[in-house]
Amino acid sequence: MRQLNPRAIPPAHIAAVEISRRQLLRLLVAGAGATALRLRHGAPALADAPRATPVGGFLSTDELVILDAATAHIIPTDSTSVGARECGAVDYIQSMLSFLPGSDANCDRHVTAADLSATVLGVQGPRRGCRDAGDVDGNGAVDAGDIALAESAVFDARPVYAGGPFSGRQPQPHFLEPSRNCRACHVAPVQDASGGAAVVLPTLDYYPPNFFAEHLPLPRLQALSWKIRILGADAVPEVADNPLASSLLETDLRRKYREGLASLETISQQQFGKSFVQLTASQQSAVFNKADPDFITLLTYNTVEGLLCAPEYGGNRNGLGWQLVGFDGDSQPLGYTIYDESVPGNYRERPDHPNAGPNPHEDCSGFSRKVANFLTIIAQADLTQPGRRFTAPYCFDVES
Amino acid sequence: MSFPSNTPGMLGNTDLQRFDALIIGSGAGGSAAAHVLAAAGQKVLVLEAGDNHFPGLDRTTIAGTPPWPLYSNDEIKMSIRNFDFQDPLVEPRTFRQTESEVAQAHPDVNNLTRNVGGAAVISSVSYPRFTAIDFRMAKALQEAGREYSGTSFADWPLSYDELEPFYTETDVLSGIAGVTAGEGADPFQSWRSQPFPLPPQPEMYVGRVLANGAKRLNYEPFNYPSAVNTRPYDGRSPCVGCGLCTNYGCARNAKGSPAVTTLRKALLTGNCQLRYNAHVSRLVMDAARQHVVGVEYIDDDGQKQVSTADYVILAASPIESVRLCFLSDPYGPGIGNTYGHLGRHMMFHFQTIAVGIFKQRLHGERGRSITNGMGEFRGIEKGGAVLRSDSPLGGVIEFGTSSEPITAARESLQPAAITFAQLSGVSFKQLLVESPFQAHIAVMIMHGEDAPQPSNRVDLDPNVHDVFGLRVPRLTYKNHAFELDAATFYKPKMLAVLEAAGAAYGFFQPFDPSVPPTSRHIMGGLRMGDDPHESVCDRWGKFHDVDNLYCVDGSVFVTGSGYNPTPTIIALGLRSAGAIVSPGSPERVLGRGHGGR
Question: With contact defined as beta carbons under 8 Å apart, do B145 and B550 qualify?
Fold first, then answer.
């Protein structure tokens, strides 16, 4: 079983080897059609994706319980399919809220979620003289809150911006690229028969490491922006003359979540005399309708993100969210058109995931009755121009 | 040795101290100019406001290959969390429709990305040329007796024939794939001296479906010219059709974006230094405001720096280039504004977006961004040299789809959609699972030409400031009947194509004039022309009023055409830079410093 590389991978190491164009062409010819493409089905790497651990962080255990029930209300689990709960939407949101824009534990003047991890885990404790190093929660002061957070349970920091280019969930295509680069090619070099330069041969079984597990550093402007998003405009005096910093939905997230979750609980107790988590689905809908609509929208956005994000952000556990909606997930470096100079047009399709037509045996019967009704209403109710419902819909059959 | 750079915040030759040229912005225009100038031996400093996601871009590798970038198939990073896009929380802009309104801050006033290589890095790199008639549109409309009051159509100070060699150079530098003649070629494009350097893109499902619909109506859809590698080219790998293309930097450098083509070539000469996270705050002018003596910028530590060079080239994209001209003359009318044209005649393309929902899954998460399109709704005759007498001027149509499930889910959460969902009793989860707006969607996007109007303009907002304390750009923009009527004319024809293609449902994305345009095609503001009374820049992109200031971004466009603007920006950038090192005969620089194949 391949292991994910949990540590940040240092910036590009550039191969010093040179290869002549003639050698390259020879290898291209040799590589073309030499082996049938062997695809692994079922995204083996997803099972290896960072496991959800009990998460310490900004939201308390009590708040996480309400949040879990609220995300499960937005995308419920039912008898046939998973919901937000199984996908770990809560972990996604907790990770986002626990990112600490002020904390620079690595003292490199670039803030990443890894700084939080280092600080909270005590792997690399705050150093004297570092900018903001002791201010774990980024509120501008080293105080009891920082100590509490640092002493809380293990925090599994997630990237604010995951690295690239590849997640390791897909193999390298089997054609030999002229653009090899050892950052993503850890395959053993092969000595050219003529004793020439060493070259790197990607193979079918070669999966690149998971660069998504990296935490990309934030330059100054992005760090300020994340401070506004997490802590609100008041934390950044420089944006006093920007009304958007205090009005956009996705700002001041910690306060909005703390107050929003508390209000769900308060409304539940007032209306039904029970906790939100004990209510039936229709009762929870009633609570949602009484809550601040902006908070519900925010919660819904973040829940969807937690369902469909790359698993490295904490949600979409084991790719369950992608499976739910029929999305293939990140496809690099394999992709869907396989370069092959031996075929007309220079490209082959993946038989199981064609680029230019439907999947084999794909159900093209259309939508459920309710979704069909929904689309009919939209088509007929178009706000600016009369829409049309076409009379003869059919499943388009691409000639093969 | 400090080349290539080991210094954080810098790429290229960090030894360079004295510069001939200082270029503001590393996008399509700035990188094209940097390439020509550095190849000619000029010492070039490029200042880029955004971050660098191409570590090692200045390094020589096997087969001349650029290293892997930090871009990836990651919707959270690229589309949800503003990895590259100008962030309205720190750098807002304001918008209003008319002069009488107070402009309001808006999170997306046609914001572009800020990153090394510019917005083309995350674009679909759809690279069609403008056609011959675009460069003499005012005369053509006048001859046809078509007048539109309030517009400011003018002819360009150069012809398609003059620009054609630079288009060809753009084809080679960017690696443009397309069909040159016959089936799959665009019959409405003008003459070209050379075939496309790369074979056409393999069609994706939605492209085939819509193209077949268009063919049933006797249109001639074409394989969309695109700077995406269809074979190994210039040391870069072929595209694998990973699906996440528009809004995404290419994870394998298969897109021939400015970063990995022109900019990289410039950096590899050793004559170019690039500083990123360097936010230019003003041009330092002499007392007469006719000469740029330096450029002030704010670095990633928030410190003010000043750099100097013999001449300065603006390439910050129109809204920001215009803003700099105003910021640099706080007590005067603005640099280049002697006759009042600074910031005016802004154009964005009026996009009409027809949405078709198909019963089958179209798998937009596979393949390229745009592989097919059609030109019949541009309103010109084949060959691109004559207006059609029976149709208004619209634009080219791209056949697209959606590849982003999170973004598509947000569509289902629009207030109108929620109302419709309640009416039909459908649950949010059901919409996610059946995915009509992602897995089943086909879109036709018409890039309708919008008329230049002096009243459509950029200046500085009096109230709102960015994180640096600088006044932000204020856009005043209202569509003219010219483009609104054209959209009305072509809309039923667009629906007919969707119907012929087999869509089950068809409708249009609503147009709301109170919301700023989001086309990402930004043109005008520093219009070029031979008459200093009617323009800001001359035919080479040099300011009439300033002896060492040029512009090479979309600001200099005179009209907007109905085609994607980037290859025209590149061609003009190559030509303007060519004129700097070879005055009067810029074509002498063609073919220099290629290194491609």
Answer: no
